[in-house]
Design brief:
The chain is an alpha/beta fold and 263 residues long. Helices cover 34% and strands 29% of the residues.
């Protein structure tokens, strides 16, 4: 099988797109690794790998993704896999890598992946904004998720994107209940929702001791917890941690929507 690589550079997004044709195995992984090493050295730390023309991938390909995940750990970059056919998708699923590597995720297309890198928090006034307070107890989690999602779904997100928002929001709320409420069940968590023409921004604010978002997830697939931040980063286009206005932690979640969708 003829192997071909084409690298497109997008320096404005600190991104590159590697289009791969043929099989990804031990014979070609070193060459791919060298291409990507050069791109990373040039500051292109957001990497899209277009798998739409890939017909075979084995453990060598999975090793490539592990290497990329390690390389990107200190530079806030990520790897987005797009276009995998059913067989290659099954290999990714069996490997479990996407679920345990914090910097590797999947997207529908190269275009959508590149959109996810254009993640600057918008300045100026949103189309609309709403806020709610949530009691810091587990019984409030489901109603809070539903209330926020009922606001966001008016923006025309796909069902899959809405599920991503719900899960990421749920993880942020659950972390706030577990770790961000020194007053226990008498505490309050605040959620601010801002809608812009191309994205939604959710702020989840707690009153805890503060957290910088450092990755603490175990690489053990069978660990009982510790994957919430990984899920947030995998499902949303941007995740940021900052001190809250009055202390605690503010988690900001950003999700793009396609420009052609109308609210």
């Amino acid at each position: 099988m003829l192997m071909a690589f084409v690298l497109d550079r997008h320096p404005d997004l600190h991104a590159c797109v590697l289009h791969v044709t043929g099989d990804i195995d031990l014979a070609v992984v070193p060459e791919i690794q060298e291409i990507l090493r050069t791109a990373l050295a040039a500051g292109l730390f957001n990497v899209v790998i277009d798998l739409s023309a890939v017909t075979y991938a084995d453990s060598s390909a999975m090793g490539l993704l592990v290497w990329l995940d390690h390389e990107l750990a200190g530079v806030e970059g990520k790897v987005v896999l797009t276009g995998a056919n059913e067989n290659v998708s099954r290999i990714l699923e069996v490997s479990g890598l996407v679920s345990v590597t914090p910097n590797v995720c999947t997207d529908e297309s190269v275009q959508q992946a590149l959109l996810s890198f254009d993640i600057a928090i918008p300045v100026g006034d949103p189309m609309w904004a709403q806020s709610l307070s949530v009691p810091a107890n587990v019984e409030s989690l489901a109603p809070a998720r539903e209330r926020v999602c009922s606001m966001v779904e008016t923006l025309g997100f796909t069902d899959a994107a809405m599920f991503d928002v719900k899960v990421a929001l749920g993880e942020a709320l659950a972390n706030a209940v577990r770790h961000g409420s020194p007053a226990g069940v008498d505490g309050e968590i605040y959620v601010h929702v801002r809608a812009y023409d191309d994205r939604v921004v959710l702020d989840v604010i707690d009153a805890g001791a503060g957290f910088d978002g450092a990755h603490v997830c175990s690489d053990d697939l069978y660990a009982s917890g510790g994957r919430g931040i990984m899920f947030m980063r995998a499902l949303m286009d941007d995740v940021r941690f900052a001190p809250g206005p009055s202390g605690g932690t503010m988690v900001t979640l950003v999700k793009h929507r396609s420009a052609h969708r109308s609210p």
